[in-house]
Amino acid sequence: MNRKNPHVVPIKRGEQWAIKIEGNKRETSLHNTQKDAIEAAREIAIKNKAELFIHNRQGKIREKNSYGNDPNPPKG
Questions:
Q1: Which residue of 3, 26, 69, 73 pairs with 50 in a disulfide if CB–CB is 3.0 to 4.6 A?
Q2: What are the boundaries of each domain within the chain?
Q3: pTM of the model
Q4: How does DSSP classify residue 31?
Q5: What is the pLDDT of residues 15-48, one digit of tens each?
Q6: Kind of pairing, strands 6-10 and 51-55?
């Protein structure tokens, strides 16, 4: 099953943060803080059993969390 993973990304035209779903051309939602965007994106990822990607201001992925069927669970 191909899941559409949410990404929390900075908006180039301002100080806001957006949630973009893989494969979509438009932002799913806009948020004033990265924290708010992460909380909303986490709910989407949990609901869709997807992976959440969090980007920094430069657009690089700084963190990712899996909320679905993780093929590589941590050992220990």
A1: 3
A2: 6-62
A3: 0.84
A4: E
A5: 899 999 999 999 999 999 999 999 999 999 999 9
A6: parallel
